[in-house]
Amino acid sequence: MIRSLVTLFALTLALPQVAYAECEQSEKVRLSGELKKLAQRNAWSGVERSYLSLLETKCDLSFDENQLGAESARYLGKTMQMYDRLAAAKELDPQPQILENLSGLDSMYGRVRVKGDARRRPVLSRAAMPFAPDERKSIEWAIEVVAGTGSFEGMLPNGEYLVGEIAFTVESGEEWQEVVVGKVKGGGGNVSGGSGPSDSEGAINWAGLIATAGPNFIMTPEPGNPVLDGSGMHQFEPADVFAGGLQIQLGGELGLTYKAPEAGLALTIGYSGGFGNDTFHQMTGWFAGVLRPGELRIAVGPTYNVITGKGTGVAQWFDVGQDKAADPVNSLRYEGWSWGGGAQASVGYGLVDLGDSMKGIVELGGGWATDGSRSFSGFGLRLGIVPSVPRFGG
Q1: Torsion sign across C-alpha atoms 41, 42, 46, 52
Q2: Mean pLDDT of 222-234
Q3: Quick count: other Cβ atoms within 10 Å of Cβ 189?
């Protein structure tokens, strides 16, 4: 009885893990076919993308899939990933060629961690580049990763290297060698057991252009109470307005912290237009604080707005000075402008990397403003570009 209860309890604990690891079989079949077709065309960058997508399906990969993934990593110079994928293939079928490749990597490459600063990225170099294409690609990949992120973790061919002002030697073996670059006690950097980087951060850790555009809606209800002008008369105010149009934003973003969640500041100038029976144009200056956790981008902050509008129909409480039936308020035309402060927020998600420094994004944004007597609000869906946050991805 006790044994049965223990078994039932263990199965209950395992259920969430089984559900989490459920394989997306149909997607795996599609990606596997894509992987093989791309490999036949020697499109190894595409093979790499398909292999990484296969890993996301949570399915067990076959010998051929791991072998093709190892080949794409070899072509790109990602030697550590190549080694891991060959090892996964070996577990399924320890073919002599796989064993020979693993042995060759163990004898000709060493494992290295370069710990640098993404805000002040060092330069990795090797004076005497090897002739073997695979070794050259491995070094070129490491140079690219360090240049893009400040750090590197992987395998490098045996030999002498320089990162920043630190010289180090890579030797074959399974032990990891650690090279720390950055501000440390006493200045400079160190290899293995020395001091680590300083916790101090630079003033600007990333920077770039913001440009977004997409459909937008503007809403402005008529004030509930009469608005009076300086002479005590009813002021001309439009009736309720709801108009659709386009929103465009242009500005820049500065990254101020690199510790997660990465944060920064953004300044943008935006235009929102609403068109139809009523036409509104809103110019907005927006100063926002920005958080960049993972692929998300969250921005919120104050705005200042200038709004112009024209159309037909004024507030129901407006005193037309005669019988409303003869001259109804909804037939009166209005035109004017106002200004005032407000707030705006947006939540976006990065869809695609556009080079090393930009990211394509989709975001949902909304804002509110007031001129003291009337409120204006809007929301829209935008596509555009924002700066990428430098993160270690190699």
Answers
A1: positive
A2: 80
A3: 24
176: buried, middle or exposed (CB in 10 Å: 19+, 13-18, 0-12)?
exposed
**Residues linked to residue 310 through DSSP beta bridges, in sequence order:** 279, 335
The residue count of the chain comes to 394
CA quadruple 91, 93, 95, 97: dihedral, nearest 10: -60
**CATH numeric code, 206-387:** 2.40.160.20
Q: Which of 167-176, 356-365, 369-378, 384-393 has the lowest mean pLDDT?
A: 384-393
Domain boundaries, the chain: 19-94, 110-191, 206-387
Closest CA to 237 of 368, 371, 369: 371
Lowest pLDDT segment from 5-19, 273-287, 355-369: 5-19
Q: Calculate what percentage of the chain has a pLDDT beyond 90.
A: 60
- Backbone phi, psi, residue 164, to 5°: 65, -120
pLDDT at 177 over 80: yes
**Dihedrals phi, psi of 48, to nearest 5 degrees:** -60, -45
Nearest C-alpha neighbor of 267 from the set 210, 214, 212: 210
Q: How far is CA 271 from CA 285, 367, 372, in A?
A: 9, 12, 21
Which residues pair with residue 188 across a beta bridge?
none
d(CA 235, CA 253) in angstroms, rounded, equals 41
Helix (H, G, I), strand (E, B) or coil at 316: coil
pLDDT at residue 197, as a whole number: 36
- Select from 1.10.357, 2.60.40, 2.40.10, 1.25.40 the CATH code of 19-94: 1.25.40
Cβ atoms of 222 and 252 within 8 Å: the answer is no
Give the Cα-Cα-Cα angle 248, 252, 388 (nearest 5 degrees): 105
Q: Is 312 helix (H, G, I), strand (E, B) or coil?
A: strand
Judge contact between 183 and 142, C-beta under 8 A: no
Question: Both tokens of residue 14?
Answer: 């395992």
The closest of 83, 120, 110, 129 to 178, measured between CA atoms, is: 110
Neighbouring residues of 160: CB distance < 8 A, sequence distance ≥ 6: 126, 127, 128, 167, 168, 169
CA 163-167-170 angle, 5° bins: 90
The two tokens of residue 302 are: 């104050």
Query: Do 255 and 206 contact (CB within 8 A), yes or no?
Result: yes
